[in-house]
Structure prediction request, 80 residues.
Amino acid sequence: MEFLARFALLSDAAQLALTGGLFWAFAAFAGVMERRRMKRRDVSRLEQVGWVPWLGLFMSAAIIGGGMLAMSLPVVIGGM
Prediction:
């Protein structure tokens, strides 16, 4: 709960930068999972586990995270 209180007290730019970084971390995870899925050759095993659109999740998270980081960049660099 202390984390949420500290997050609420951050500036808007710092909140955007932190959230954008989390989106990029998730995008990296989705990219790794997509790479693992593409290397797998056993289709029957893939059907047992299920199907997750890792590429779509990667692209969405990377675009959202990049936009958030780009919006917060001037304030974070400027130090205001």
Summary: The helical segments are 2-9, 12-39, 43-49, 54-78. The mean pLDDT is 85. The two ends are 27 Å apart (CA to CA). The first helix runs from residue 2 to 9.
